[in-house]
Amino acid sequence: MTSHNDARLAILNHLVEWLMLFTNTDELAEDELDELIEEATDQADLMLRSMSLEVTETHNDTITVNLQLVDIEPWLEEVLNEKFVEDTEL
User: Fold this and answer.
1) For the chain: N or C, fewer Cβ within 10 A?
2) Which strand (E) or helix (H) includes residue 81?
3) CA distance 41 to 20
4) pLDDT (tens digit, 9 = 90+) per residue, 20-45?
5) How many domains does the chain have?
6) Domain that holds residue 9
7) Is the pTM of this model over 0.85?
């Protein structure tokens, strides 16, 4: 049985793969590709967090989740403000 954290990671990786399929990476250097993958990972993580994704059950290849959609703009503004505060504290 997959742990809930592993299931969330599988969902995150699925979204990253999805986002990267629509990105032209043919002429990118390895470091540029790594940067794009990191950006796609950040975007996918934000998307999952904006839906308050909570894995509730895993069974074989099935992952059951609860989602609570939030109003995106105020939520994102709050997240970006928190990130700004964290960055300025470094």
Assistant:
1) C
2) helix 72-89
3) 10
4) 999 999 999 999 999 999 999 999 99
5) 1
6) 4-89
7) no
